[in-house]
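Good morning,

Attaching, inline, the backbone tokens for the sequence recovery test we're adding to the shared suite. The designed sequence is right after.
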């Protein structure tokens, strides 16, 4: 043996480990399945963490990309104006490029049926920040960026393949967009997508890119651009933040509008800003699966200790014939690592199943960040986790083996309890129950959050309401289409709105508002969401008017300019008073789309506040304007009893009767937007609930196994007790009392641990506090009952022992 190399010794230990597992198939299956649950859950969650938090964005120099936000009034994350972009480019020394994008909808016309597309209006350098080279043609050049109407376009790979049949000669050809045409200069690579924060209103699947039309050097103008920049090599984000703050200070000093709006400029790494709303949830879930793995290791450690007791004679004899203690420890650690690797292999398969289940329910906020799969990084993580897990649960039996007392064990070789330590078993159970309590407490709080989200009143009734976008901004066309759709069978009400509730796929429209007569320092301070609508919108979506009237067809530019405000804005500006008849200074565009001007309007109605951005946050109050005063790309809403498929066909027929070039988007139930708003909370709750269920299962299996093992070691003692008159109920109480003692300790420790950790969940909770007594009481009662049941099922075995058989035990 001393002459063998380390590699030969390792091979021998591995072969011996396999033989020992074959000799004990029940033990091997139980341990591998337990590890598979823990490692599989870790593999699935790490796949998400790796794809979302760790993997670099698929852009050149992704670690140097930053997103720049303007702070205007009470909106800290606002878009920038073209003039701001111009000034940042002129004054920055740390950014080598800064570009911008604005996304709206458009109509692709020409050959074939008109198609609704998402068009990204970008600065000439925007795409070069995110794409090394196109699949065909070229990217935009500085000459493409000018105040005159755009003449060139770049297609997404998907649009090129879908609409133009992957025509290799597409570059140089004209495509018809709306009433004009653009020359295709390039096609982006397959798989290219935009990855921007959720609140940026920049969707990932933009179909068409067009150079933005603006005079960048002229002050004023609307704030509409989302800015990204690339830092120079060696520059840091903290330095860039300080420079942006300095530039904002300079702009406030040179422009009265910037001064009144208290302009701020903020810089964040693009990747970290993309996941700022997901990071906390994912890291907490990753910590949760770590606790599940600890529980799994505790269970397997107990199995190993129990198995070590049955191998007492073997280890004693090996020691007696000359085996060194280090050699025994190495053998046991090798067996543990081998078991960990087998559990890791099974966990990889189980993790794939978990991941597929999770991906089927993944919210759009995760899906937009890119594909999630088991790649080389995840496989490496699983392997390392399996090896470390094997070492972790193998320490207990290895330490036990190192304490072999040769003389004592040779004297009592008939007793299998030399290695078993009741204190160690109790510690393992206490740890499992403690960690299980913490996981159940977190899952319980998240479940109550989801129930609270389900109960949120969004301010409208989405049932039986469908929506579809339309590219036209012609009032005549839209008004006539509204009349035609009213005549469809099953239709109860029809209207349109510039921005659908809970749909942030297009740029939001919000601007300053103030009551008539407000002093100058109180004017550019607060912002409200502005919405352009036709009469009947509130009736269609089920948002009740609190006071006043709806718009009528006469509310146009030739009559008194009017507005409807929501109850939050009315309460804020005129507390205790009626808002009707009050004058409000807002932004509208009666001269045409995006021709914004300040206007004094009269409030003719007050409506219920509608949750446009989130079910759980009141982001901004709302101002509604007649469509004639603010024409924009819009979406129709219909309250109807007809099926969605039938409505979609009827809508297209009616639109094409009026205008063959009208592009109609997909017909979507309004309830789908509500479900999408709930999806992230539902997803986090599903993951937390799954982890808690696995932890509870492992903890109950561990309690049952420890109790059964304890009974098997005390068979002789129990037989004597029954022989001298102990009744089964007394034996049951004895075993239950001893089995529940570590459980109660674990419950106490788990309660304290949960009270310390659940405040970390505060940012994910809604409608419930981190230390909610009701949730903790339910978890305490539930875990106590399940633990007691596990103990009872094991203890009942003791009451069925035959005293004569028990007395002959061993």
């Amino acid at each position: 043996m001393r002459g063998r190399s380390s590699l030969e010794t390792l091979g021998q230990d591995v072969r011996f480990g396999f033989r020992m597992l074959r000799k004990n198939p029940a033990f091997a299956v139980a341990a591998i399945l337990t590890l598979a649950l823990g490692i599989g859950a870790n593999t699935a969650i790490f796949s998400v963490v790796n794809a979302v938090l760790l993997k670099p964005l698929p852009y050149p120099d992704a670690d140097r990309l930053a997103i720049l936000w303007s702070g205007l009034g009470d909106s800290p994350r606002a878009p920038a104006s073209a003039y701001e972009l111009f000034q940042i480019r002129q004054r920055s020394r740390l950014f080598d490029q800064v570009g911008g994008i604005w996304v709206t909808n458009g109509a692709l016309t020409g050959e074939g049926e008109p198609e609704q597309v998402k068009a990204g209006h970008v600065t000439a350098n925007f795409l070069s920040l995110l794409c090394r080279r196109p699949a065909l043609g070229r990217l935009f050049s500085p000459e493409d960026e000018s105040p005159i109407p755009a003449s060139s376009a770049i297609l997404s790979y998907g649009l090129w393949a879908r609409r133009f049949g992957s025509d290799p000669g597409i570059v140089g050809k004209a495509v018809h967009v709306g009433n004009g045409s653009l020359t295709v200069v390039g096609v982006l690579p397959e798989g290219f997508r935009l990855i921007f924060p959720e609140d940026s209103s920049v969707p990932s699947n933009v179909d068409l890119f067009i150079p933005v039309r603006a005079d960048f050097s002229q002050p004023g103008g609307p704030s509409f651009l989302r800015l990204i920049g690339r830092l120079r090599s060696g520059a840091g984000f903290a330095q860039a933040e300080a420079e942006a703050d300095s530039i904002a200070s300079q702009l406030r000093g040179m422009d009265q509008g910037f001064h009144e709006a208290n302009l701020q400029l903020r810089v964040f790494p693009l990747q970290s800003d993309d996941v700022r709303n997901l990071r906390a949830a994912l890291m907490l879930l990753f910590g949760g699966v770590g606790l599940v793995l600890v529980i799994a290791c505790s269970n397997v450690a107990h199995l190993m200790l129990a198995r070590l007791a049955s191998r007492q004679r073997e280890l004693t004899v090996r020691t007696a014939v000359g085996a060194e203690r280090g050699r025994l420890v190495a053998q046991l650690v090798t067996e543990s690592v081998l078991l960990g690797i087998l559990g890791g292999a099974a966990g990889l398969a189980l993790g794939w199943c978990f991941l597929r289940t999770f991906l089927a329910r993944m919210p759009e906020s995760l899906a937009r960040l890119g594909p999630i799969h088991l790649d080389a990084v995840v496989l490496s993580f699983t392997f390392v986790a399996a090896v470390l897990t094997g070492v972790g649960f193998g320490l207990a039996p290895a330490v036990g083996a190192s304490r072999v007392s040769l003389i004592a064990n040779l004297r009592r070789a008939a007793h299998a309890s030399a290695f078993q330590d009741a204190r160690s078993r109790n510690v393992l159970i206490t740890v499992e129950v403690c960690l299980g309590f913490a996981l159940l407490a977190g899952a319980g709080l998240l479940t109550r959050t989801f129930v609270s989200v389900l109960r949120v009143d969004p301010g409208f009734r989405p049932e039986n309401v469908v929506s579809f976008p339309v590219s036209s901004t012609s009032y005549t066309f839209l008004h006539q289409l509204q009349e035609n759709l009213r005549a469809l069978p099953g239709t109860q009400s029809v209207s349109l709105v510039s921005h659908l509730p809970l749909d942030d796929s297009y740029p939001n429209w919000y601007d300053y508002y103030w009551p008539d007569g407000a002093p100058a320092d109180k004017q550019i301070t607060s912002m409200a969401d502005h919405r352009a609508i036709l009469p009947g919108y509130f009736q269609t979506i089920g948002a009740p008017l609190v006071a006043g009237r709806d718009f009528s067809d006469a509310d146009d530019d030739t009559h008194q300019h009017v507005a409807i405000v929501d109850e939050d804005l009315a309460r804020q500006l005129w507390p205790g008073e009626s808002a009707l008849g009050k004058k409000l200074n807002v932004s509208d565009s009666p001269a045409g789309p995006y021709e914004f001007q300040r206007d004094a309007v009269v409030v003719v109605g007050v409506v219920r506040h509608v949750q446009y951005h989130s079910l759980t946050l009141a982001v901004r109050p709302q101002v509604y304007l007649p469509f004639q005063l603010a024409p924009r790309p819009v979406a129709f809403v219909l309250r109807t009893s007809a099926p969605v498929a039938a409505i979609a066909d009827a809508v297209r027929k009616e639109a094409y009767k009026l205008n063959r070039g009208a592009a109609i988007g997909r017909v979507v139930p309004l309830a789908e937007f509500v479900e999408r708003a709930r999806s992230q909370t539902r997803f986090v709750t599903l993951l937390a609930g799954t982890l808690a269920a696995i932890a509870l299962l492992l903890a109950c299996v561990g309690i049952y196994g420890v109790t059964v093992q304890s009974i098997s070691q005390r068979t002789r003692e129990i037989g004597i007790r029954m022989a001298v008159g102990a009744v089964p109920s007394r034996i049951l109480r004895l075993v239950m009392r001893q089995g529940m003692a570590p459980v109660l300790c674990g419950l106490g420790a788990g309660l304290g641990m949960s009270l310390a950790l659940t405040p970390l969940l505060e940012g994910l909770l809604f409608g419930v506090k981190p230390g909610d007594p009701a949730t903790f009481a339910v978890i305490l009662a539930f875990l106590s009952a399940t633990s007691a049941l596990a103990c009872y099922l094991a203890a009942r075995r003791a009451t069925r022992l035959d005293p004569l058989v028990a007395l002959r035990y061993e």
